[in-house]
Amino acid sequence: MRLHRLDIQAFGPFGGAQSVDFDELSAAGIFLLHGPTGAGKTSVLDAVCFALYGAVPGARQSGQGLTLRSDHAAPATRTEIRLELTVAGRRLEVTRQPPWERPKKRGTGTTTDKAQSWLREYDATAGAWKDLSRSHQEIGEEITQLLGMSREQFCQVVLLPQGDFARFLRADAEARGKLLGRLFDTHRFAEVEKRLAERRRAAEAEVRDGDAALLADAHRMQQAAGDTAESPLPDLAPGDPGVAETVLAWAAVARSTARERLTLAHCARTAAASAHAAADRALDDVRELVRLQRRFTEARERAGRLEERADAHREAQARMERARKAETVAPALDLREATEAEHRSAATEEARARAVLPGTFADAGAPGLASAARRAAEELGGLESARRAEQRLSDLVAERADLDRQERADGDVLHEAESWLAEWDATRADLQARIESAQQAATRAEQLAVQREPAQQRLRAARQADQFAADIEATQAQVLASTERALKAHARWLDLKEQRLNGIAAELAANLTDGEPCAVCGATEHPAPARKVAGHVDREAEESALAEYQRADERRVEDERRLGVVREAWSAARAEAGDTPTARLDEQVEELERLHAEARQGASGLHPAHEELRAAEQERERRAAALQQAAVRAASRVAHRERLDREKASLEQELEQARGSADSVTARAAQLEREAARLTQAADAARTTELTAQRLKDADARLADAAFRAGFETPAAAAAALLDDAAHRDLQRRLDAWQSEEAAVRAVLAEAETAAAAQRPPADLREAEQLAESAARRLQETASGQDAAARRCIELDRLSSQAAASVRRLGPLRDEYDRVARMAALAAGTSADNERKMRLESYVLAARLEQVAAAATVRLQRMSSGRYTLVHSADRAGRGRSGLGLHVVDAWTGRERDTATLSGGETFFASLALALGLADVVTDEAGGVRLDTLFIDEGFGSLDDQTLDEVLDVLDSLRERDRSVGIVSHVADLRRRIHAQLEIVKERTGSVVRQRGVR
């Protein structure tokens, strides 16, 4: 990476625009950056970092956002940083503008513009710059990927900061490890340690769960065995040694005992089944004897009841015989009744037809009525011509009325058209005025629409800022709560750990076995081992408390991160919203919306007004045409009306003769139609009555003859003997029932087996049932016992198989747990195999520190004239683990001593050598990105002249690798030794930059 040019405007102490040409400064290899205190030497380095990463170095991150802006800058001058550099063979230009408050273009006050970024690349083929991106995120990712370093690594490697490496040189192992971890990104090794620890805990939990499941199966087997178990299940806990072997052995004994009990239960059930079968056969015999005796008694009772009903049975038989004879007369009776009903209906119809006739036809017979009907029909036929004339007269009247309606309609049209045309000029002027007003409203709506979006955007930003402010308060409360929970969890973990250490003897004593040596003292006798007291804290409780503390601490860190995110979001939203209160912005937006809505409402009438004007012009043309058409129709109606009046007079004279005394020909025709229909109906009814009277006389004669042949004296007697269907079925049912009952009683009394049973003594059914019930209960009890024994055996077999499968499944889990536990202990530095007691991340960092020390020694020996060498020390630090020690070997004494014993000047050049070595190692770690420009910030004042020359020689040797080094210092002697200089001059209106000693 090589810097070419830096342009600064309104940044830090620089009020105006300043430029730094690094190409000219780098030509000398070493250049000096000097100036009075507070002039802005470090601000030049901040500008380089801000251009690349959008943020200043970590120690000065409080200078972000609007505070980066120079207090000396003019209000209308925007803060801007532009850096031109070459990295990975590509020439790039990065421009960044942080958010700033500028004066409003209209009105008073200020408004905040958002931050902006640009990234361009020089195209050598085209000889011009081309744009790559304007996204903050994309530019940051592109720069980080090309440099291969994060902002922290860049600030540590390229911008060697004031005092940082002196602190690194003298720091303890923990602080040194944090810095190396950030630079070399070794957190992944810590994640490996964490992952191994998690896998160890998970594997241990699986083993414990497997033991718990196995013991649960054992307890279920104990419940299944019940009181049949010869010995109780031993008291075991998950994790105890020999759990599987003890459970399987106990299960085998329980299964054997259960099978013996099953054999005994089977023998008892067989004996009870034989006794139950004998009792059932005896009960069946007694029940059969009781049934036969009861059957004989019931048959004797039924025979007595039949004898009592014998007279009623004979009367029913006689009644059935008379009904059968009367059935031969039934057809004649039905015919006579139907004929009589028909005659009554015909007489009634004739009386009704004669009632509507005039009195002159009261005594007329059927022939006279028919003759009168024919005369009325002939007169009706003669009125057909008069009907047509009457219809024509009606059409003429309607046509004459239609002409009158047309005349009135044309008169209305003429009046309406003349009135409308008289107002045409006023209507047209009104519509044109509406069109002009709507056009003005449309123009005003477009102007207001341009103002709406910025106002709405500021209002949304202000509302978001208010919401973020509320979120900050809530998040701060969450941070306080999570911090308090983390502290409480940490205190609880320490308390439990202390309690466990106090009772650790009881845990060790739990694993003692008689005859086996003690792991602590080696004795094989254990006369008084310690016992666990109530409330003893075991390893699981301690680890659970530790895990709870870790979760609470992770929650605290997450809440703090969320608080930072919310604060950044609040700052961005507040910068975008400006200083105007949200309520005032809301009022402004509401006023703009109201004015815009009013303007749009007024503009919405433009198109309807155009349409109304076009429609009004079309209506004017239509009404003018209607005036001409109405005049033509009025002239033609006069001749047509005269012709209709002459034809009407002729038809009225003809109709007066045809209708006679009636109101009209139609009324006369209706009278004749009604008269002819009534006479015809009366003639038909008279003829029907005469025919039905003759048929009734014939039916009476046939009925008298049928009754005499059937043996009845009169037809009435035959009718009385008839039975309807329901009575006939009921009588037949009673006769059949009596015969069936008589046959059944005779059959039962004739049975030999029933008669023999009646001769025997009465049977004792209750005693036989009691004996059978007793035998059934005994069989049920023995069957239940056998089923219970069988179920016990099946359940014990199933649980034993399940336990055996659990034991087989636990084998690989135990092996996996042993392997993971060994790996986790080795990575965590707690294993006996890890001789240095070194964590995995510390081991990797130690290797990196060795590389850094070796690279730094090359330059340190030149700076110290071969006296000092930096070495990595693996001496154990606290808690018995190896640390990240860094010592210096003094060649004059041959002794290795701590870096804290170096003097101030020695500490500086040792720190400088360490920084340059670290830069080389980090560069190689980042993928070999070449760093052609470095900056060293202060520290040269502590060197004597000889050492200063040696240090400058080392720095000057960097030119062999085509590097340039910028030294930031107040030392006056350096101005004489280094000719290429970048001077920062502090003035009342802001600092300015001057380059000296360059071509």
UniProtKB/TrEMBL annotation:
Name under which the protein is recorded: Nuclease SbcCD subunit C
Single Gene Ontology BP annotation: double-strand break repair
Family listed: Belongs to the SMC family. SbcC subfamily.
The keyword Ribonucleoprotein is annotated on this UniProt entry: no
Residue ranges constituting the Rad50/SbcC-type AAA domain according to the UniProt record: 5-196
Description of how the protein assembles with itself and partners: Heterodimer of SbcC and SbcD.
Domain of life: Bacteria
Signal peptide: none
Species this chain originates from: Streptomyces sp. R21
Coiled coil: 289-326, 386-448, 582-689
GO molecular function: ATP hydrolysis activity
Protein keywords: Coiled coil
